[in-house]
Structure formats: C-alpha cells, structure tokens
C-alpha cells in the first residue's frame, strides 16, 4: 500500500544553517557562506559577503568582500567601506542623530559610506528618524524646552519627549501592572516607555492623545485606584483632580475636558442612581420598525497609543470572540432576544488576532424628538476592579459597585516585560461579557433603564500558546423586577394553600366517620398530612401551569414591551414549586398504593349447584350422593379483572407521547419556548436559536397535552362482568366504610353452556 505521509517540520526547527522550503514543506540546507533569513523561508549571505545572485530559497550565490572594503550595503548587493565600524549584520553603523548615506542622489554607489549629522539648530530643528535613514523635524517638546533637538541634563527625557526640570511635573509613575488572578506583578515595557511621558504631556500640554494613552494604561491596570500609589490610575486621578478649572464635557460631571471618561465617581450609592434613576429616552417593541426592535449600540474605539480609530457598530460581532455567521452574531442586539455564545479559543489565535489592544467607549444610539441622533453612555461593571473594601464589583448590591466606562477585549501589550516585539509573559482576556437590559417596572410602552455591560477578565500565563486555551462567553440578558409577580404568586399560594387545608380537613373528617373513630390520635394527624400533601401538590401544580401559560401568552403576544421573561436565576421559585408538586404527588401516590394493598375484598359467588353427583367417602368404602360443585374459574377470572382494573389509566400513554412530540417538533410549538420575542412556529437553520425558558417550556407542554377519554368504560364493563358471572364484590376500604357491587344474576345460573347463556342474554335484552 502506498503511504501519503510526510514528517512535520516547522520553520523554527530548521536552525541557522537551514531554511524552510515552502514548496517541500521541509527544511533545506543553505549554501556556502549563507544562513537563514529573518523570515526563515530563504537564505542570505553571512556578514562580510555580498550577494551575486538571488533567485529565492537557497538559490543564492555569495561572494566575500575585499579586506579593505569589509562592509555590505543595506540591500546586501554591494561591498562598501564603513568609516565608523560595522554592525553585527556586517552593515555600516552611524552614531545617534546621524543618517547613513550609501549612494548619491542619482543612485551611484559611493566608495565610502557617509554618516551625515542632522542639524538640530534653530535653522532646521532636525534629527534622524527611528530607522536612521533620513533627517526629520524633531519632536516639539525638544524645541520648546531646549530650542534644539537635544534634551541634555537637567532636562528630563522620557518616552521620546523632553520636559524641563523646572516645570511642575506629575509624580513619578510606577510602571507596574498587577495580574491579581495569578498573583503576579510585573514591570511592563509599554508602561516603562510611555507612562511618565503620557502623564507629563497630558498634565503640561493637555495633549489629547497623551491623555487618552494614559487613560488606556489605567484601563489595562483594571481601573484599580489607590490613594497611596502612583500607578497609571493614580497619575490619571492626580491629573483629573487638579484640572477642574478646565470644565466638563456635555454637562457630564465625570467627564473632564481633554481627559477620557473612565469613572462614574466613587460616591456611595451612585451606581444605583446611574442605573435606576433615569429612563432611556426611547421605547421598544417586539413588532415594528427595525429601529424599535434593535439595540443600536455604537462604540468609539482607540488604540493603545491614544489615537482615535473610528466609530464602530457592535453588529458584526465586534465584541464576540467566538466565530459565527453574520446573521447569528447580529441577533445579539434584537430587543427581547436572550443571546448566549460561548466557546474555547486558542491563546495563539488570540495573540495573532489581537496583537495590539483596542479600547472601547460604548454608547446606545437613539433619535431625539427633534430628529437629531443622540448617544447614551453605557456604564461598565468590571468584575476584576479592586478599589477598596467599600467597593467590590461582585454580588447584586449596587451600592458597592464602582462603574467605569472604557474596556478592552484582549491585552497582550502590558504583559510584555522587556522587548515589545516578543510574546507577552501574561495576556489578559475578556472571558465573560454580559449586556444587561432592565425593563422599567409597570411600563406599558417598552421603556428601559440604561443598559449595563459586565466584563470579567482572565489572566493567562503564556507558556505554550498553541496548546493553551481559554473559555470565553458573550451574552445579552433582558430582565425586569420580578418582586411584584413573586408577591402575587405568594398571595395565590397562600389562598389556595388555605383552601387546601380546609379541603384536607373535610377529607380527614370523612375518613374518621368511615373508620368509626372519634378520637384524634397520631394516625388521624398522619392521615391529614397525607391528604394535605396531595391537595398541596395540586396547588403547586395549578400555580406552575398558570405561571407558564401567563408568561407564554403575555410575553409572546405583546407588541409594546411590558413584561420580560424571568432569568434562569429568577426561576428558582418556579423550579422549587415544580419539585414540591412532584414530591408531594409521589407521597400521595405511595399513600394510594398502601390503601390499595390494605383493602379487604370478598368475592361472593351466587351460583347454586346443579343436581347431585355420587361421591365415594374415603375410609368408609361407601358411595353417597352430594351436591354438584360450582366451578371456581369464574371467581378467578373476576378477581383477575379486578387486579387489571386497578392499573387502568384515564389516558393512553403512547398516544399522549406521540401527540406531544407531533405538536412540539412537527408543528413547531417548541419554538415558542425560546427566550426571544418571535411568536413564529418555524425557524430558519441560519437564524440564531435562543436558549430555552423553563417556564415557557412548561406552559407549552400543557398546551400540547391531550387527554383521551376511552370509548369504553372499564368500570361499567367490570360491573357487567360480575352480573354475567353471577358474582358480587364486597370491598372494605375502612373499618366502617366500603363498596358493594351486586352481581347476582337474575337468571339464577351463570355456570352453564353457551346455548343457555345465549338464551339468558336474549331474555335480558
């Protein structure tokens, strides 16, 4: 048999003397005086050698440069004299603030490379660029401070900016980032390079980009504030507190001029005021125009350096890390549709797709009465934020929450300790994002409170990105205050529970009369509790069925939203009621089974002997006449039918199961149990399938159940059988109570042949 296998080789496995052949998918040897290129898919000449030809891969020919011309040009094709030495790559080297010139203006190669000093005087204010290829105008802070491109002592050079030592600078920043989940605090290379420069430029010049960059570093540090620390958030808060004179933006007290809006403030109870005091100034419906049935989220996006990127709509899966179809991703923002998405994502894919973090300020778009488009800021609840013991963003107590504004999906930047080009030591991923929309209580027009986005981050220590993965999820929940519905349910439970007590007392009194006892003893109390268990099970059953049908009808049929389904966490009482109903019904069933087992039953055979027979008397040796015996098989048959009738159901289980499956799966009733606003019985395979609601499923099942009445009446047939068999049945279910079936035949005999039985039936007809 032929094999179609090959060894797996990666570019990193090839080493310095071999390259990765993209055609063979294997490592190949480089030629003489060659080594692997930086990309790994070709060979390049070693230092001191120039290229004679290069056709890609290993098709490279190298030639050694003369001793007196030991340098190689930047493109690697020529040898050149380097007056100021060589780099490790064998190329010419120049000093700082100098540019390397290897060719004349018309492209002719020079015999000796030139290192031209950039003129930093007032005539040009120029310095070499980052690549050392050309002279460009130096940064403006150099010119402001030193009137040149030099930032010598006592001036302060930080982050590529120059500041005067005589200026009032913000405190010295701490370039550390704490990853609380894994207990690691590291010095970030990004913070070390940019923190102090951004804070100083924001403080001295109100530089917009620097202020945004400082805010981003605070967000990367999980908005964690400390009065005794000068980390990124400490510097931001220092500038925020000392720039009150600049005023506020859009009449929002927490949004300072020139600064990003990061916090809502730390006043106790402020979170509940933000989330519950104001109503979102528009209405939503389940059936109407697209603007009324969709949440129009829009986000202002920034890069880590503080540059504004663009306005982005959340449609298209901007916040969803799990891949999916466009239709299903956009279903997350259809009003009333509970959306859940979760998956495992590889750390290597995260690092590839999110090499540079993007920061978002989220808003909800709406139209004003004048037709103007407006934005409503969406607050963020960062579950990883650590402020103080007073503010803990966990639990349901809003008074302990500290709301923020800006967030990101992946931070693979702050976790880099040394080289910003290498893999980070730690990557921080938004593993759980939840958008919560709360309906205003007692609204009839679909009014909501401002939405809340909750973000939980996971810190991943990068060891082997290809094998590491993290679970991420994105969800949109719709909720309303269920306290009023719970109160009504409790009232109904109390009223029906009280009626169940009275009904159980009446049952107990009847049982006492039947047993002939007038003393209230332990058996009486136990019997009352058993009766009450069955009646209370009926109460729970009525409440759960009523609740399911109520939510099914009122949620699915509404146009302007007035009710929203309970969340799974709010269904605990409903689940408890169902469990109680089944448990109490099971107890009642056991009691019924015990009562059936303790019933005293007598079968009375009215058949009289027909004639006499001769019978030998044992031991005496004589023959005497005796009455002919009556057959016992009729009594056996009636007793067997009695046993069977005890297990007869009022429904046909097979028919009921098939009917339920038909209406749920074929007709499509099961689609009504989805937690979305649609009342359609059919769903496209391309559309998003919302999670099931336990309450709606309970209501749907009882809509689809059909109780079947049998054409025949089993009990009447049993009475007829007793009459035909000439047998009466006497049952004593209690000491002083029982039942009697009078089955004595009017014909006198039932143990007869077919002809006489046919005559008797005709006479009876």
UniProtKB/TrEMBL annotation:
SUPFAM superfamilies: Growth factor receptor domain (SSF57184). Keywords: Membrane, Transmembrane, Transmembrane helix. GO terms for biological process: cilium assembly. The keyword Isomerase does not apply. GO terms for cellular component: MKS complex. The chain crosses the membrane at residues 529-554, 654-675, 687-706. This is MKS3 protein. It comes from Chauna torquata (Southern screamer). The lineage of its organism: Eukaryota, Metazoa, Chordata, Craniata, Vertebrata. The gene is Tmem67.
